[in-house]
Amino acid sequence: MKKSVKKQLLMNKTGDEIQVALVEDGRLAELIIERPESRRSIGDIYLGRVHKVIEGLKAAFVDIGQKSDGFLHFSDVGTTNEDYRALIEDDDDDDETVVDETGSGEDGADEDDASVEPEVHQEQQGSRQSSRSGGRKPQPRKDDGAEKRQSYTQMIAGKLKANDSILVQVIKEPISTKGSRLTSDITIAGRFMVLLPFGGGQVAVSRRVVSRKERARLKKLVRSMLPEGFGAIIRTVAEMQEETLLKQDLEKLLAKWTQIEEKLKDAAPPQLIFKEDTIISSVLRDSLTSDVTEIVANSASIHKETLNYIEWAAPEMVKNVSLYQGKLPLFEGYGIAKDVESIFSRKVWLKSGGYIIIEHTEAMVVVDVNSGRYAAKREQEENSLRTNMEAAREVVRQLRLRDIGGIIVVDFIDMMDARNSKKVYDTMKGELRNDRAKSNILPMSDFGIMQITRERIRPSLMQRMGDQCPACGGSGVVQARFTTINQIERWLRKYALQHAMKFQQLDLYVSPTVAEPLKNSDMNTELKWFLQHMLFVRVKQDESLRSDDFRFYTRKDSRDITAEYGDL
């Protein structure tokens, strides 16, 4: 029998920053942070302008007013226009249509994820495909699928033209230099259902609703409420809910869509048409389940917003909501302040005495597992297994806590017994089931390497909340200052060889860490360089420079000549 987990939602407001923590059995499991300069954009709807269409990429780049153009893949160009709908030939969906709540899209998001963003589009596509076949398996020719995909690609490329206006929704936030990922299959997420404005009357139910009787009841109810042309995905939390609550939720969603239609009448691209709910409403909508035993806010305004939402969505849980009155800060009072601080640490200690190191690279996140202490040879396998099992649980916790997505590679401690490797794999797989984000995992290789992919719809928490180190440029290592001095001396030799005039006067700017050995060497450095190269060089400190950087200026006209006479 699965052990029940005690969950708490802690809502902390400090200045303009809002932090929402999900605590499981006294330990921080997830942390959502929002600042005015980094508001989440998942679910936002824009009237965009097509910037360019690249058929080779099967994608269009759309200007939505952000720093970088959004990326709209042809597979995300939905059936929202009549030109596209002609390919579909929608029929009414079969009563057995099932939505896989674990997701099946590119990122495999859970249907109950933060705001039902990319997964809604994927599920919508899945249900459409099911309805098109009428529950029967199609019998195409061998190359029929490829021909249809090619035809679809050409048709989309022909319909999307530069400077066209298009209604799109953000399904992935900008990450690094990449713009937002967009879709034109618009969805609006509610508490009990997700509205599909162009759903064509289709209704799907979350797979987690297992009772056939309840599934049929929910479908019948929602179908009777939906206006013509609209579709819906019924969420897990709708199970056993009264018709009144479902109707209220649908009315709210339809009101939002009416506002969108009104705003579109006078809109000019690029323009934001619809902004997702506040962080508080979004978290409550997607994290409020029956096992949440306590909801605490340290702000009167957040407390009021929380109460208003819960009084409508889950009145039986109003008693669990409270305004924090403690003398210590909220996170300190609940003992999770250290967990929050650990998010920015490379090293995470394990109870066994081992530790994991988390390193971010451009392409992936690498996790190294270390035992941390010596074990006798006869106990080595047992010790390695114990450390690896604990590390597997902690790695998943850190992935959730730091919101790490993309490719994750875990280097476990080597083990000799293949059965032990299977135990670690099963542990990791079991822990990932508790993660709302969809993941894929491969068994441990002979080298002790395990590969994981986890959905990524926004930059990790560390990327959003941290600044790149000015000293190391994000590498975590700075060049030795004597290496920089050697580079400076090579530059001077090259300059002296290429420059005919002697006795030139130059100013050398370096960081204080490099200036220190130059000024304190046994022989005066400036005199040494004069004797070697017949150049008057004056060393100056510049705190804005890194230890691996230097700049040469002509003293006469203060011209930077560093790049002219040497490689930086």
From TrEMBL:
Keyword Magnesium: yes
InterPro entries in the record: NA-bd_OB-fold, RNA-bd_AU-1/RNase_E/G, RNase_E/G, S1_domain
Swiss-Prot/TrEMBL keywords: Hydrolase, Magnesium, Metal-binding, RNA-binding
GO CC entries: cytoplasm
GO biological process terms held by the UniProt record: rRNA processing
Cofactor: Mg(2+)
Annotated ranges, domain S1 motif: 43-77
Sequence ranges of Acidic residues compositional bias: 89-116
PROSITE patterns referenced in this protein's UniProt entry, alphabetically: S1
Compositionally biased residues, Basic and acidic residues: 140-150
GO MF annotation terms: hydrolase activity; metal ion binding; RNA binding; RNA nuclease activity
UniProt xrefs under Gene3D superfamilies: Nucleic acid-binding proteins, Ribonuclease E, catalytic domain
Chain segments carrying region Disordered: 89-150
Ranges annotated as biased composition (Low complexity): 124-133
Official protein name in the record: Ribonuclease
Organism name: Pelodictyon luteolum
Lineage of the organism: Bacteria, Pseudomonadati, Chlorobiota, Chlorobiia, Chlorobiales
